[in-house]
Amino acid sequence: MAPRPHLVGERSVDPGEVPPDAEQDDLYVGGERSQEPHPNGTIVAKIGGSTLGEHDTTLKNIVELQKRGFETVVVHGGGKVITEWMARGGVRPKFVRGLRVTDAAVLEIVVAVLTGVVNKSLVSSIQALGGRAIGLSGVDGGMLRARPGDPDLGLVGREVSANPEPIKAVLAGGFIPVIAPVASRYSEDDTVEDSMLNVNADTAAGEIAAALNADRLVFLTDVAGVLDSSRRLIPRLTERQARSLMRSDVVAGGMVPKLEACLTALKHVEYAQIVDGRRPGALLDSLSGESVGTRVG
């Protein structure tokens, strides 16, 4: 893996914008371009339905990366579509700390929508653009496993772990794995149970990137990146700064699992990025060294 480039701080932050223990001089950076992943590197891209609009180029970018020789893995969410299908059934969604509360009835909808409607639509779109893709869920091949955790969240997996072998097999066949974040449920004695758990897609992406020793993890979301308390984009965060921002509640909601996933991935990944997936060419630009979104690590 190529060494990380050194980025020089551009300006400091006004007092009170970030927690006092954050490394403030480095929060806003610019100047040198980040290094591109090495040829034939592995890229994990997490995409959400909210970024896939009429003018979105994310799927085109993913196909382009495949044609360039990169091993590209897609992990997708689908919260908006799940909510729509829940509304059809008269089920009101609930969230705790940015994570969907999942009971048995909701889990049926989650599995059907994520592994069926959303996953196969993405595979179909990628193939229509000239790519080669195979749709999977985390249950397939024991790819994702988890145990139920916080009772407030219901059937939502914690202690998520990823088995990279099924993903590597798909990549070796020349296909893009498109992965729905549903996990096999494991008991406390580490035996597999005949049931599934809902897993946050950001969490799944972080674990998968770490298990694959990916070159890069990119979150394509519907905001510019991580914002400070004045709603300004923070171009770069160290691990310490990211943890500090989460403790201070400067970032909250759906950004929390993204930052947590970035920190998980950094154990094995050079660095992670959170970028605005609605921006044309955002994925390719983030990998070519353009200053887009927030770099973590």
Detail the topology: elements first, then pairings.
Layout: E1 8-11, E2 28-30, E3 42-47, H1 58-68, E4 71-76, H2 79-88, E5 95-96, E6 99-100, H3 104-128, E7 133-137, E8 144-148, E9 157-162, H4 165-172, E10 176-180, E11 182-186, E12 192-198, H5 201-212, E13 216-221, E14 236-237, H6 239-247, H7 255-265, E15 271-276, H8 282-288, E16 294-296
Parallel strand pairs: 3-4, 3-13, 4-10, 7-10, 8-11, 13-15, 14-16
Antiparallel strand pairs: 1-2, 5-6, 8-9, 11-12, 15-16
Describe the structure.
The protein has helices at residues 58-68, 79-88, 104-128, 165-172, 201-212, 239-247, 255-265, 282-288; strands spanning 8-11, 28-30, 42-47, 71-76, 95-96, 99-100, 133-137, 144-148, 157-162, 176-180, 182-186, 192-198, 216-221, 236-237, 271-276, 294-296. The two termini are 14 Å apart. The protein is of the alpha/beta class and 297 residues long. Residues 1-33 have low confidence and may be disordered. 46% of the residues are buried. Helix content is 31%, strand content 25%. It is globular. Helix 2 (79-88) packs across helix 3. The protein has one domain: 3-Layer(aba) Sandwich (Carbamate kinase), CATH 3.40.1160. The strands form four sheets. The chain has an eight-stranded mixed beta sheet with strand order 7-10-4-3-13-15-16-14, with helices on both faces. It is built from eight helices and 16 strands.
The CATH topology is given as Carbamate kinase
Number of helices: 8
CATH superfamily caption: Acetylglutamate kinase-like
Rounded to the nearest angstrom, the distance between the terminal CA atoms is: 14 Å
Strand residue content: 15-25%
What CATH first level would be assigned? Alpha Beta
Number of domains: 1
Shape estimate: globular
Kindly report the average pLDDT value. Answer: 85
Helix content: 25-40%
Q: Gyration radius, to the nearest Å?
A: 18 Å
The largest beta-sheet arranges its strands as 7-10-4-3-13-15-16-14
**Unreliable stretches covering 5 or more consecutive residues:** 1-33
Q: What does the main sheet amount to?
A: 8 strands, mixed
Oligomer: single chain
Written as H for each helix and E for each strand, in order along the chain, the element string is EEEHEHEEHEEEHEEEHEEHHEHE
Q: Structural class, from helix and strand content?
A: alpha/beta
